[in-house]
Amino acid sequence: MNGSMMWKTLARTAAPAAVLALGLAGCATKGFVREYVETQEQPQREAVSKLGQDLTATRGIAESADQHASAAMDTARMALTEAAASRRLASKIASGELKYNVVQAHEVHFGFNKYTLDTKASSELDQVASLLDQNPRYILEITGNTDNVGSDRYNQQLGSERAESVRRYLSDTHRVPLSKMATISFGAGKPVAHGEGDGTRALNRRAEIRVLEVQDPDLAGLGKGDTSWRP
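^ that's the sequence the OP posted. Answer follows.
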C-alpha cells in the first residue's frame, strides 16, 4: 500500500472517532454546565424558600399582633365607657338625683401616706363583692379619706388613690363593673375622729364603702334586672 492510500485509510478511520470524541466531549460539557448551574441555583432556591417561610411567619405574627391590638382597643373603649358611666353615677349620687337606700356600710384602713390594701382590707372587700350578688340594684359608693397631715391638695389626691385602690381591687378580683361603682375623695374633710394623736389619725386614714340599693335602675344606668355583668 502506497503512502497516499495509507493516509486516506487513516483519515476514513479517524474521522468517525473524532466525531464520537467531540460528541462525548459535548455531552460531558453539557452535563458539567447543567450540574454547575444547578449547584449555583440551589442556594438561591433555598434562600427564596427561606424568604417565603419568613414572610409567612411574619404575616402570621402581624395578623396576631393586629388581633391583640384590636382586642386591646376594644378593652380600652369598654373601660372608657364604664369610667364615664362611673362618673355619671357619682354625679347623680352627689346631686341627690339618684334615690337609694343604704344597705350596708364597710370601712378599710390604710397606713400613713399609703393607699395599698392589706390582707384585712382585701377580706373586707371580698364580703362586699359577695353582697352584690344578692340584688342587681346594688351599687357601691366608695369614698377616700385621709388624716389632717399635709396640704388639702395632697390629701385630696391621696383620698382619690385610696378610693381607686378599692375600686380596682373589686374590678380586677371580682369583676365588678366600673359602672356600678362611684368614687369620691373627701381628703381630710370628713374625719370620723378628732385629735392630733397617731391613733386618732389612723382612724381617719380610710375608705368607706356603702352598698346602695337604687330605686330606679334605669336612672343609675343599670337597666331593668340587669345581672349580665356577673360571671
